[in-house]
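Design a sequence for this backbone.
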């Protein structure tokens, strides 16, 4: 569904939700107390080298608090920005399917009943943490309330994936996408630009591969180097060149131009907790980044998908 506007030359999440639910929708980030199979030894240890001790849940609720308390506290903060709206219960921190099915059912069933205005359950997870019994249950749940699964990919290139200790391969990611889509579950993919050793062409390859898969959304992030992470420590010991704002904007615009025009763009940048961020410091100005992307697309008269070509799977390097 195309929801491109004059202001934004790509399909924004805000327009998608307004079109689908007829009003403002925002996420309430919850912490279910999960760990990660890449930390606890299930598949590896140490975690992804860019990931903080909060497991990418830097803005989620406090895991020590009941879900209801987390929900109400974050909802109150969100309403300081928007007076009215519908809610998405969003399990964000760590790997939110990494638990026995009965525990997942307990958490998910509670989450969707926290407020009558919850219209969706969103679950952030890894592609190698989706056993079929969980996928089957999510498929059943999807018949009662919209279910969205956010899958971390970051890159299609196995050499980079190994370098950052992702501990899964591209095949497991592709397989997870197809199994979720068999249940009609909306799939949103996370990618990171600026990973060590990756060129612009490699970052475009990640988009080209995603175009071959039945995904519905994408989150594009710049690499954040943070304190108390392995990659952050490595950078402080021996810094390497990071993308400038101008380079990042150019790459994202090119990614959007080759991205399937029907894919919803959930993010074109992200932010890290200010007190934890080592570099690049320009990422602190999230709205500047997104505005620069908009400006360049308007200058080039470029639109999402205007350079899109459907091709077979690329060979990952």
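Sequence:
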């Amino acid at each position: 569904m195309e929801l491109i506007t004059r202001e934004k030359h790509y399909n924004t999440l805000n327009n998608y939700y307004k079109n689908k639910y007829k009003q403002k929708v925002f996420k309430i980030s919850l912490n279910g107390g999960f760990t990660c199979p890449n930390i606890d030894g299930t598949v590896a240890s140490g975690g992804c080298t860019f990931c903080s001790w909060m497991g990418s849940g830097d803005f989620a609720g406090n895991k020590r608090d009941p879900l209801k308390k987390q929900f109400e506290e974050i909802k109150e903060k969100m309403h300081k920005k928007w007076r009215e709206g519908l809610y998405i219960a969003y399990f964000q921190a760590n790997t939110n399917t990494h638990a026995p099915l009965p525990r997942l059912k307990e958490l998910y069933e509670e989450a969707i009943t926290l407020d009558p205005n919850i219209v969706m359950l969103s679950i952030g997870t890894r592609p190698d943490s989706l056993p079929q019994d969980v996928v089957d249950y999510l498929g059943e749940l999807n018949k009662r309330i919209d279910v969205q699964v956010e899958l971390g990919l970051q890159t299609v290139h196995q050499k980079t994936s190994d370098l950052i200790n992702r501990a899964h391969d591209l095949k497991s990611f592709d397989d997870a996408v197809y199994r979720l889509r068999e249940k009609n579950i909306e799939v949103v993919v996370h990618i990171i630009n600026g990973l060590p050793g990756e060129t612009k062409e490699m970052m475009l390859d990640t988009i080209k591969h995603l175009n071959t898969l039945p995904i519905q959304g994408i989150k594009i992030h710049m690499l954040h180097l943070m304190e108390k992470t392995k990659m952050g420590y490595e950078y402080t010991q021996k810094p390497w060149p990071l993308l400038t704002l101008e380079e990042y904007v150019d790459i994202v615009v090119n990614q959007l131009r080759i991205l399937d025009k029907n894919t919803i763009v959930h993010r074109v940048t992200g932010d890290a907790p200010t007190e934890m961020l080592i570099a690049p410091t320009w990422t602190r100005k999230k709205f500047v980044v997104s505005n620069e992307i908009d400006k360049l697309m308007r200058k080039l008269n470029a639109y999402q998908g205007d350079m899109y070509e459907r091709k077979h799977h690329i060979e990952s390097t």
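The two ends are 32 Å apart (CA to CA).
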